[in-house]
Amino acid sequence: MNLTFSHFEEILKKGYNLDIVFLLTLVDEQECDIKELCCENPKLSLLYQTLIRKGLVTEECKLTLEGKSLVDFLSTPIESKIDKKKPVPDDFELWWKAYPGTDTFTHHGKTFKGTRAMRVRKDECKLKFNKILGEGEYNVHELIQALELEVNQKKENSVKSVSNRMTFMQNSLTYLNQRTFEVFIELIKQGHVTEESHGPIKDVDI
To answer: Are 22 and 32 in contact (CB under 8 A)?
Structure first.
């Protein structure tokens, strides 16, 4: 860690301190599990929770995009500023519009009536969505593709079973909190597509 006084000033301006910088450096350079290191020391445990609260590390002890930017800042010229990664405002709106509003839908000419709204608590969803993007593991396009795959799968299975499978889909906040998208991102990586299927679809309903 090559820290100058100018770096130190910039770090303080952004609301960070050297304790934070040191722990982030351990994660980045030594791939250290700081969660385990901090668990038995109340002060260090509080500091670790601060890293999570500030969006610098994930709960799996990996650097987020913002955490990585802070570490990278230390190797830049002293005239540089910390590049705080901010989510693109339109990203959440794109995902929000893609999320089904209700569990009522028409597919292949067949209409299925639902009973509930599925887009709920938009402000909380936005915070959670931006936190997920900030982790750096997934981008907005992957999240939307995962959503489209699940919705299409449920609609296809509704037609085949003559029952509304969309009634089993989680509301938007639960979907994000439980990270339901992850299994569908994996399916896409394995070759599943989001277009309407004309053959059997493996049932991975959640």
So the answer is: no
Measured distance CA(89)–CA(84) in Å, rounded: 15
Distance between CA atoms of 2 and 92, rounded to whole angstroms? Answer: 37
Per-residue pLDDT of 67-123, as tens digits, reads 888 888 877 766 555 555 566 668 999 999 999 999 999 999 999 999 999 999 999
Dihedral over Cα of 10, 13, 18, 19: its sign? negative
- In angstroms, the CA 115 to CA 166 distance is 10
Helix/strand/coil for 172: helix
Task: Specify which residues 127 forms β-bridges with.
Answer: none
What tokens appear for 68 in the block? 């990585």
Q: Classify burial at 56, counting beta carbons within 10 Å of its beta carbon; exposed 0-12, middle 13-18, buried 19 or more.
A: buried
* 1 or 199: which leads in pLDDT: 1
Contact (Cβ atoms closer than 8 angstroms) between residue 147 and residue 193? no
For the entire predicted model, the pTM comes to 0.62
Higher local confidence (pLDDT), 118 or 193? 118
Residue 193 contacts by C-beta under 8 Å, 6 or more apart in sequence? Answer: 149
**Structure tokens, 54:** 């500030």
DSSP state of 38: H
Q: Which residues touch 32 (CB under 8 Å, ≥6 apart)?
A: 26
Label residue 203 by pLDDT band (50, 70, 90). very low
Q: Which helix (H) or strand (E) covers residue 180, if one does?
A: none
